[in-house]
Amino acid sequence: MGEHRLKRTGRWVADRAVAVAFFLALPILLAAPAALGGGAAADRLEVAIGRALFERAWVPAPSSTRANDGLGPLFNARACVACHGGLERHAVAAPEGEGRVAASALLRLSDAEGGPDPVYGRQLQTAAVPGFTPEGRLLLAEDGKTVIAADLAAGAFAAMTRSGLRVAPGLRGLGLLAAVPAEAIRAGADPGDADGDGVEGRVHELPDGSIGRFGWKASSATLADQIAIAFSLDLGMGTAERPAPAGDCTPAEPACIAGPHGGTAAEPEILPEIVTMLAQYLAAVPPAKPAGPAAGGGLFAETGCAACHRLTLAAADGRPVPAFTDLLLHDMGPGLDGGATEPGVAPTEWRTAPLWGLAGALAAGAGLLHDGRAADVAAAIGWHGGEATGSRDRFSALSPQDRVRLLDYVSGL
Prior knowledge:
Layout: H1 2-9, H2 16-31, H3 41-55, E1 74-75, H4 80-83, E2 105-110, E3 127-128, E4 137-140, E5 147-150, E6 162-167, H5 174-178, H6 182-187, E7 204-205, E8 211-212, H7 223-235, H8 254-258, H9 272-284, H10 297-302, E9 313-314, E10 320-321, E11 329-331, E12 349-351, H11 358-363, H12 377-383, H13 389-396, H14 400-411
Antiparallel strand pairs: 1-3, 2-6, 4-5, 7-8, 9-10, 11-12
Helix pairs in contact: 2-3, 3-9, 7-9
Protein backbone atom coordinates (compact mmCIF):
# COMPACT_ATOMS: atom_id res chain seq x y z
CA MET A 1 0.00 0.00 0.00
CA GLY A 2 2.61 2.52 1.06
CA GLU A 3 4.92 1.98 -1.91
CA HIS A 4 2.04 2.14 -4.38
CA ARG A 5 0.69 5.38 -2.90
CA LEU A 6 4.12 6.97 -2.61
CA LYS A 7 4.74 6.36 -6.30
CA ARG A 8 1.27 7.59 -7.18
CA THR A 9 1.53 10.90 -5.36
CA GLY A 10 4.98 11.78 -6.62
CA ARG A 11 6.48 14.80 -4.94
CA TRP A 12 4.39 14.98 -1.79
CA VAL A 13 6.51 12.41 0.04
CA ALA A 14 9.55 14.65 -0.37
CA ASP A 15 7.73 17.60 1.14
CA ARG A 16 8.56 18.11 4.78
CA ALA A 17 5.20 19.64 5.62
CA VAL A 18 3.42 16.53 4.44
CA ALA A 19 6.04 14.28 6.01
CA VAL A 20 5.41 15.95 9.37
CA ALA A 21 1.65 15.62 8.83
CA PHE A 22 2.18 11.93 7.99
CA PHE A 23 3.68 11.24 11.40
CA LEU A 24 1.03 13.37 13.10
CA ALA A 25 -1.63 11.39 11.24
CA LEU A 26 -0.47 7.92 12.29
CA PRO A 27 -2.06 8.05 15.77
CA ILE A 28 -5.31 9.24 14.18
CA LEU A 29 -5.27 6.37 11.69
CA LEU A 30 -4.43 3.74 14.30
CA ALA A 31 -6.87 5.02 16.92
CA ALA A 32 -9.99 5.38 14.78
CA PRO A 33 -9.67 3.91 11.29
CA ALA A 34 -13.42 3.46 10.95
CA ALA A 35 -13.95 7.20 11.37
CA LEU A 36 -11.77 7.88 8.34
CA GLY A 37 -13.93 6.17 5.76
CA GLY A 38 -14.29 2.61 4.62
CA GLY A 39 -12.00 2.70 1.57
CA ALA A 40 -8.57 1.21 1.05
CA ALA A 41 -5.90 1.70 3.68
CA ALA A 42 -4.02 4.07 1.39
CA ASP A 43 -7.10 6.27 1.05
CA ARG A 44 -7.63 6.27 4.83
CA LEU A 45 -4.00 7.30 5.24
CA GLU A 46 -4.46 10.29 2.96
CA VAL A 47 -7.63 11.25 4.87
CA ALA A 48 -5.67 11.04 8.13
CA ILE A 49 -2.90 13.19 6.68
CA GLY A 50 -5.52 15.66 5.50
CA ARG A 51 -6.89 15.86 9.04
CA ALA A 52 -3.40 16.47 10.43
CA LEU A 53 -2.88 19.25 7.87
CA PHE A 54 -6.27 20.71 8.83
CA GLU A 55 -5.15 20.86 12.46
CA ARG A 56 -1.56 22.03 12.05
CA ALA A 57 -0.42 25.63 12.46
CA TRP A 58 1.35 27.13 9.45
CA VAL A 59 4.41 29.32 10.00
CA PRO A 60 5.89 32.44 8.37
CA ALA A 61 8.70 32.31 5.84
CA PRO A 62 11.52 31.59 5.97
CA SER A 63 11.36 28.26 7.78
CA SER A 64 13.15 24.95 7.56
CA THR A 65 10.27 23.21 5.81
CA ARG A 66 9.35 23.29 2.14
CA ALA A 67 5.67 24.16 1.53
CA ASN A 68 5.15 24.71 5.22
CA ASP A 69 6.24 28.33 5.26
CA GLY A 70 4.68 31.48 3.93
CA LEU A 71 1.94 32.33 6.41
CA GLY A 72 0.80 35.88 5.74
CA PRO A 73 2.39 38.37 6.02
CA LEU A 74 -1.20 39.38 6.74
CA PHE A 75 -3.70 36.72 7.78
CA ASN A 76 -6.69 35.85 9.96
CA ALA A 77 -5.74 32.45 11.34
CA ARG A 78 -2.71 30.15 11.55
CA ALA A 79 -4.65 26.93 11.03
CA CYS A 80 -7.90 25.71 9.48
CA VAL A 81 -8.99 24.37 12.85
CA ALA A 82 -8.69 27.85 14.38
CA CYS A 83 -11.88 28.89 12.56
CA HIS A 84 -13.49 25.47 12.21
CA GLY A 85 -12.84 23.81 15.56
CA GLY A 86 -14.97 20.68 15.84
CA LEU A 87 -16.13 21.30 12.24
CA GLU A 88 -19.18 23.10 13.66
CA ARG A 89 -20.44 26.67 13.61
CA HIS A 90 -19.33 28.85 16.52
CA ALA A 91 -20.59 31.93 18.32
CA VAL A 92 -19.43 35.36 17.13
CA ALA A 93 -18.18 36.34 20.57
CA ALA A 94 -14.84 34.85 21.61
CA PRO A 95 -15.01 32.50 24.62
CA GLU A 96 -12.73 34.78 26.62
CA GLY A 97 -15.18 37.67 26.24
CA GLU A 98 -14.10 41.27 26.87
CA GLY A 99 -15.56 42.44 23.56
CA ARG A 100 -13.43 40.07 21.52
CA VAL A 101 -14.64 38.47 18.29
CA ALA A 102 -14.14 34.76 17.71
CA ALA A 103 -11.55 33.62 15.18
CA SER A 104 -14.37 32.05 13.18
CA ALA A 105 -15.89 35.48 12.45
CA LEU A 106 -14.46 37.45 9.53
CA LEU A 107 -15.21 40.77 7.85
CA ARG A 108 -15.66 40.55 4.10
CA LEU A 109 -15.32 43.66 1.92
CA SER A 110 -16.60 44.51 -1.55
CA ASP A 111 -18.38 47.09 -3.63
CA ALA A 112 -21.96 46.46 -4.74
CA GLU A 113 -20.72 44.35 -7.67
CA GLY A 114 -18.39 42.16 -5.61
CA GLY A 115 -15.15 44.00 -6.40
CA PRO A 116 -12.57 44.25 -3.57
CA ASP A 117 -11.70 47.31 -1.53
CA PRO A 118 -8.77 49.00 -3.35
CA VAL A 119 -6.59 48.92 -0.22
CA TYR A 120 -7.82 46.15 2.06
CA GLY A 121 -8.90 43.66 -0.61
CA ARG A 122 -11.70 41.14 -0.11
CA GLN A 123 -11.24 40.56 3.61
CA LEU A 124 -9.90 42.44 6.60
CA GLN A 125 -6.80 40.65 7.89
CA THR A 126 -6.65 40.98 11.66
CA ALA A 127 -3.26 39.37 12.31
CA ALA A 128 0.26 39.70 10.95
CA VAL A 129 3.66 38.02 11.14
CA PRO A 130 6.42 39.77 13.16
CA GLY A 131 7.44 43.06 11.62
CA PHE A 132 4.05 43.72 9.99
CA THR A 133 0.90 45.47 11.20
CA PRO A 134 -2.55 43.89 10.89
CA GLU A 135 -5.01 45.69 8.65
CA GLY A 136 -7.30 46.22 11.62
CA ARG A 137 -9.21 44.40 14.31
CA LEU A 138 -12.80 43.47 15.03
CA LEU A 139 -14.61 44.45 18.22
CA LEU A 140 -18.00 43.56 19.62
CA ALA A 141 -20.25 46.47 20.46
CA GLU A 142 -21.97 46.62 23.82
CA ASP A 143 -24.99 44.78 22.44
CA GLY A 144 -22.78 41.70 22.08
CA LYS A 145 -23.82 41.24 18.44
CA THR A 146 -22.70 44.20 16.33
CA VAL A 147 -19.13 43.92 15.08
CA ILE A 148 -17.04 47.03 14.55
CA ALA A 149 -13.87 47.38 12.46
CA ALA A 150 -11.31 49.33 14.48
CA ASP A 151 -7.69 50.51 14.20
CA LEU A 152 -7.69 50.38 10.39
CA ALA A 153 -4.02 50.62 9.39
CA ALA A 154 -4.61 52.52 6.14
CA GLY A 155 -7.57 54.61 7.18
CA ALA A 156 -11.23 54.17 6.30
CA PHE A 157 -12.53 51.79 3.67
CA ALA A 158 -13.18 53.25 0.23
CA ALA A 159 -16.44 55.17 -0.14
CA MET A 160 -17.96 52.42 -2.29
CA THR A 161 -16.85 49.55 -0.04
CA ARG A 162 -19.51 47.56 1.79
CA SER A 163 -18.55 45.38 4.75
CA GLY A 164 -20.25 42.24 5.97
CA LEU A 165 -19.61 39.85 8.83
CA ARG A 166 -19.32 36.16 7.99
CA VAL A 167 -19.29 33.26 10.44
CA ALA A 168 -17.39 30.16 9.37
CA PRO A 169 -19.98 27.53 8.37
CA GLY A 170 -20.09 23.97 9.61
CA LEU A 171 -18.02 21.53 7.56
CA ARG A 172 -19.81 18.21 8.04
CA GLY A 173 -21.25 16.32 5.10
CA LEU A 174 -19.42 18.28 2.39
CA GLY A 175 -18.48 15.12 0.54
CA LEU A 176 -22.16 14.32 0.01
CA LEU A 177 -22.86 17.85 -1.24
CA ALA A 178 -19.97 17.45 -3.69
CA ALA A 179 -21.55 14.22 -4.96
CA VAL A 180 -24.81 15.89 -6.08
CA PRO A 181 -24.74 16.08 -9.90
CA ALA A 182 -24.84 19.53 -11.46
CA GLU A 183 -27.96 18.59 -13.43
CA ALA A 184 -29.79 17.81 -10.19
CA ILE A 185 -29.01 21.31 -8.91
CA ARG A 186 -30.09 22.87 -12.20
CA ALA A 187 -33.36 20.94 -12.10
CA GLY A 188 -34.43 22.74 -8.92
CA ALA A 189 -33.93 26.25 -10.32
CA ASP A 190 -36.96 28.31 -11.26
CA PRO A 191 -35.75 31.68 -12.60
CA GLY A 192 -38.73 33.88 -13.28
CA ASP A 193 -40.92 31.83 -10.89
CA ALA A 194 -42.63 29.83 -13.61
CA ASP A 195 -44.70 27.87 -11.09
CA GLY A 196 -45.92 31.02 -9.33
CA ASP A 197 -45.03 29.99 -5.78
CA GLY A 198 -42.96 33.11 -5.14
CA VAL A 199 -39.72 31.12 -4.97
CA GLU A 200 -37.26 31.33 -7.82
CA GLY A 201 -33.75 30.10 -7.09
CA ARG A 202 -30.94 30.16 -9.58
CA VAL A 203 -27.67 28.38 -10.08
CA HIS A 204 -24.47 30.36 -9.63
CA GLU A 205 -22.71 29.97 -12.96
CA LEU A 206 -18.97 30.44 -12.40
CA PRO A 207 -16.65 31.88 -15.08
CA ASP A 208 -15.35 28.43 -16.02
CA GLY A 209 -18.87 27.13 -16.65
CA SER A 210 -19.12 25.11 -13.45
CA ILE A 211 -21.84 25.56 -10.83
CA GLY A 212 -21.04 27.02 -7.44
CA ARG A 213 -22.28 24.98 -4.50
CA PHE A 214 -19.95 25.75 -1.54
CA GLY A 215 -19.76 28.91 0.55
CA TRP A 216 -22.37 31.43 1.66
CA LYS A 217 -22.63 32.75 -1.91
CA ALA A 218 -22.10 29.42 -3.73
CA SER A 219 -18.77 30.84 -4.86
CA SER A 220 -16.93 27.50 -5.25
CA ALA A 221 -17.76 24.48 -7.36
CA THR A 222 -15.35 22.13 -5.59
CA LEU A 223 -13.91 21.59 -2.16
CA ALA A 224 -10.44 22.16 -3.59
CA ASP A 225 -11.36 25.68 -4.71
CA GLN A 226 -13.02 26.46 -1.39
CA ILE A 227 -9.82 25.35 0.37
CA ALA A 228 -7.74 27.50 -1.98
CA ILE A 229 -9.89 30.53 -1.10
CA ALA A 230 -9.27 29.87 2.60
CA PHE A 231 -5.50 29.59 2.09
CA SER A 232 -5.51 32.87 0.17
CA LEU A 233 -7.86 35.01 2.27
CA ASP A 234 -7.51 33.49 5.74
CA LEU A 235 -3.87 32.33 5.78
CA GLY A 236 -2.19 34.51 3.14
CA MET A 237 -0.72 31.56 1.23
CA GLY A 238 -0.73 30.67 -2.45
CA THR A 239 -2.03 27.53 -4.15
CA ALA A 240 -2.16 26.40 -7.77
CA GLU A 241 -5.76 27.64 -7.94
CA ARG A 242 -4.93 30.99 -6.34
CA PRO A 243 -1.16 31.40 -6.71
CA ALA A 244 -0.58 34.92 -5.35
CA PRO A 245 1.89 34.33 -2.46
CA ALA A 246 0.67 37.48 -0.69
CA GLY A 247 -2.89 36.21 -0.50
CA ASP A 248 -5.37 39.07 -0.27
CA CYS A 249 -2.77 41.87 -0.17
CA THR A 250 -3.37 44.61 -2.75
CA PRO A 251 -0.96 46.85 -4.73
CA ALA A 252 -1.68 49.51 -2.10
CA GLU A 253 0.15 47.25 0.41
CA PRO A 254 3.62 46.97 -1.19
CA ALA A 255 5.36 45.76 1.97
CA CYS A 256 3.02 42.76 2.15
CA ILE A 257 3.53 41.92 -1.51
CA ALA A 258 7.32 42.18 -1.13
CA GLY A 259 7.43 39.38 1.39
CA PRO A 260 8.42 37.34 3.21
CA HIS A 261 6.86 34.46 1.25
CA GLY A 262 7.52 30.77 0.99
CA GLY A 263 6.84 30.55 -2.73
CA THR A 264 6.06 32.37 -5.95
CA ALA A 265 3.14 32.53 -8.34
CA ALA A 266 4.95 29.94 -10.47
CA GLU A 267 5.72 27.67 -7.51
CA PRO A 268 3.05 28.28 -4.84
CA GLU A 269 3.63 27.72 -1.15
CA ILE A 270 0.93 25.05 -0.91
CA LEU A 271 1.35 22.04 -3.18
CA PRO A 272 -1.71 20.65 -5.02
CA GLU A 273 -1.30 17.40 -3.08
CA ILE A 274 -1.86 19.25 0.19
CA VAL A 275 -5.09 20.78 -1.12
CA THR A 276 -6.17 17.35 -2.37
CA MET A 277 -5.60 15.65 0.98
CA LEU A 278 -7.41 18.41 2.85
CA ALA A 279 -10.33 17.99 0.45
CA GLN A 280 -10.26 14.21 0.95
CA TYR A 281 -10.43 14.67 4.71
CA LEU A 282 -13.36 17.09 4.56
CA ALA A 283 -15.17 14.90 2.03
CA ALA A 284 -14.85 11.94 4.40
CA VAL A 285 -16.49 13.68 7.38
CA PRO A 286 -20.10 12.46 7.61
CA PRO A 287 -23.02 14.78 8.41
CA ALA A 288 -24.20 15.00 11.98
CA LYS A 289 -27.13 12.79 12.90
CA PRO A 290 -30.44 14.54 13.67
CA ALA A 291 -31.13 14.93 17.37
CA GLY A 292 -34.80 15.84 17.41
CA PRO A 293 -38.18 14.17 16.88
CA ALA A 294 -39.69 13.49 13.46
CA ALA A 295 -42.92 15.33 14.30
CA GLY A 296 -43.19 18.65 12.51
CA GLY A 297 -41.94 17.55 9.11
CA GLY A 298 -45.37 18.02 7.59
CA LEU A 299 -45.50 21.61 8.82
CA PHE A 300 -42.04 22.20 7.34
CA ALA A 301 -43.45 21.34 3.93
CA GLU A 302 -46.81 23.07 4.40
CA THR A 303 -45.27 26.42 5.30
CA GLY A 304 -43.05 26.28 2.20
CA CYS A 305 -39.73 25.91 4.01
CA ALA A 306 -38.99 22.83 1.92
CA ALA A 307 -39.22 24.83 -1.31
CA CYS A 308 -35.62 25.99 -0.70
CA HIS A 309 -34.50 23.73 2.14
CA ARG A 310 -35.23 20.58 0.15
CA LEU A 311 -35.30 17.62 2.48
CA THR A 312 -33.20 15.41 0.24
CA LEU A 313 -31.05 15.65 -2.87
CA ALA A 314 -29.58 12.63 -4.61
CA ALA A 315 -25.92 11.88 -5.16
CA ALA A 316 -24.76 10.59 -8.54
CA ASP A 317 -24.76 7.03 -7.20
CA GLY A 318 -28.31 7.36 -5.89
CA ARG A 319 -27.43 7.90 -2.23
CA PRO A 320 -29.79 10.29 -0.45
CA VAL A 321 -28.27 13.60 0.66
CA PRO A 322 -30.61 14.83 3.45
CA ALA A 323 -28.99 18.25 3.72
CA PHE A 324 -32.13 20.43 3.64
CA THR A 325 -30.83 22.63 0.82
CA ASP A 326 -31.26 23.03 -2.92
CA LEU A 327 -27.74 24.52 -3.32
CA LEU A 328 -29.27 27.43 -5.24
CA LEU A 329 -29.05 31.18 -4.78
CA HIS A 330 -32.18 32.91 -3.51
CA ASP A 331 -32.89 36.61 -2.99
CA MET A 332 -33.73 36.96 0.69
CA GLY A 333 -34.74 40.61 0.66
CA PRO A 334 -33.22 43.80 2.11
CA GLY A 335 -33.31 42.51 5.68
CA LEU A 336 -30.62 40.01 4.75
CA ASP A 337 -28.46 42.35 2.70
CA GLY A 338 -25.05 41.05 3.70
CA GLY A 339 -23.11 44.17 2.76
CA ALA A 340 -20.14 42.61 1.00
CA THR A 341 -20.83 40.16 -1.81
CA GLU A 342 -19.18 38.15 -4.59
CA PRO A 343 -19.01 38.92 -8.32
CA GLY A 344 -22.24 37.95 -10.04
CA VAL A 345 -24.21 37.64 -6.79
CA ALA A 346 -26.44 40.35 -5.34
CA PRO A 347 -25.79 41.38 -1.73
CA THR A 348 -29.24 40.00 -0.82
CA GLU A 349 -28.68 36.63 -2.51
CA TRP A 350 -27.57 33.58 -0.52
CA ARG A 351 -27.08 29.93 -1.22
CA THR A 352 -29.67 27.97 0.74
CA ALA A 353 -27.85 26.98 3.92
CA PRO A 354 -27.92 23.23 4.68
CA LEU A 355 -29.80 22.60 7.91
CA TRP A 356 -28.30 19.25 8.89
CA GLY A 357 -26.20 19.70 12.01
CA LEU A 358 -28.35 22.56 13.25
CA ALA A 359 -28.90 20.85 16.60
CA GLY A 360 -25.17 20.77 17.27
CA ALA A 361 -24.72 24.41 16.30
CA LEU A 362 -27.51 25.51 18.61
CA ALA A 363 -26.13 23.40 21.45
CA ALA A 364 -22.77 25.14 21.01
CA GLY A 365 -24.42 28.56 21.30
CA ALA A 366 -23.71 29.47 17.69
CA GLY A 367 -25.81 32.17 16.09
CA LEU A 368 -27.66 31.38 12.88
CA LEU A 369 -27.60 33.02 9.43
CA HIS A 370 -24.45 34.19 7.65
CA ASP A 371 -23.41 36.58 10.40
CA GLY A 372 -24.71 34.79 13.49
CA ARG A 373 -27.30 37.48 14.19
CA ALA A 374 -30.13 35.03 14.97
CA ALA A 375 -30.03 33.38 18.39
CA ASP A 376 -32.47 30.62 17.43
CA VAL A 377 -34.57 29.25 14.59
CA ALA A 378 -37.51 31.57 15.24
CA ALA A 379 -35.27 34.62 15.00
CA ALA A 380 -33.70 33.31 11.80
CA ILE A 381 -37.14 32.82 10.23
CA GLY A 382 -38.06 36.36 11.22
CA TRP A 383 -35.19 37.73 9.15
CA HIS A 384 -36.31 35.84 6.03
CA GLY A 385 -37.74 38.05 3.29
CA GLY A 386 -37.65 38.25 -0.48
CA GLU A 387 -38.40 34.83 -1.92
CA ALA A 388 -38.96 33.49 1.61
CA THR A 389 -41.60 36.07 2.56
CA GLY A 390 -44.48 33.66 1.99
CA SER A 391 -42.91 30.95 4.15
CA ARG A 392 -42.17 33.44 6.92
CA ASP A 393 -45.75 34.71 6.89
CA ARG A 394 -47.20 31.19 6.89
CA PHE A 395 -45.01 30.35 9.88
CA SER A 396 -46.29 33.44 11.71
CA ALA A 397 -49.87 32.40 10.98
CA LEU A 398 -49.48 28.97 12.60
CA SER A 399 -51.10 28.31 15.93
CA PRO A 400 -48.73 28.61 18.91
CA GLN A 401 -48.71 24.81 19.26
CA ASP A 402 -47.81 24.25 15.60
CA ARG A 403 -45.08 26.90 15.72
CA VAL A 404 -43.51 25.05 18.63
CA ARG A 405 -43.75 21.74 16.75
CA LEU A 406 -42.09 23.20 13.68
CA LEU A 407 -39.34 24.93 15.67
CA ASP A 408 -38.62 21.73 17.57
CA TYR A 409 -38.37 19.85 14.28
CA VAL A 410 -35.93 22.29 12.69
CA SER A 411 -33.89 22.77 15.87
CA GLY A 412 -33.38 19.02 16.10
CA LEU A 413 -31.93 18.56 12.62
